[in-house]
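Let us practice reading a record.
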Amino acid sequence: MTVPPSQQRLAQAFVDLAACGVTEPDRLLTVLADHGNGLLGDCAAIVLYTPDERTPVQVAGTVDALIRLAYDAIEWGEGPGPQARGTGRPVPDTALDAERTRRDWPRYTSRALALGYGRVVALPLRVGEETLGALVLLGPGSTPLDPALPALGQALTDAAGWALERDRALRESRALADQLGQALTSRIVIEQAKGMLAGRLAVSVDEAFHVLRGHARSHRRRLTDVAADVVRGRLDLGGAG
């Protein structure tokens, strides 16, 4: 049996999101925006993602004017994207020319209406237990959006969030592995230096460690650096004791 085209496209969207490498958040956001435009009727889709306070916000979409509007909305702290990102809750289908919308999002509303968009939905992009972005859907004219669109859009957004969570977990795992590797390397060097000093000074390993530590403290150096110099023959503590 032939699968209806809409189902084929939906299946392809999830395949494409899953296929994005977990170290490619930029590409994943672009894929989400592209499929949002292709699957969600005549809506324009914009994705914003702010992984943390130190990383610049990322915006993906296919309409340059809306990308610029999304960046401005983040700077203003208004609009559906920042609201969904900040609250972690969806912004339901909303008329941009409504009195409340004009009051709450004055600059965003004015620009969106001027670009020909009259309806908006924003869906939170959840990464693990945090909301770090949003998918914003803008519809032309004043006709309410198809009620099925938010659920479909949220499903796509959730799939992207799972991929981004894998990316974050992988980065954290690599960072932890690097820290453990550095700690192990430092420990090995210190043990080597202790053994060399113990033999050279004819003292116990514990006493050799006190010599190392005392030199490091008196010279305000890291213990690992002092130990490395001893092992490499660049520091002679033979006269210490």
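A brief commentary: Confidence is low (pLDDT under 50) at residues 1-5.
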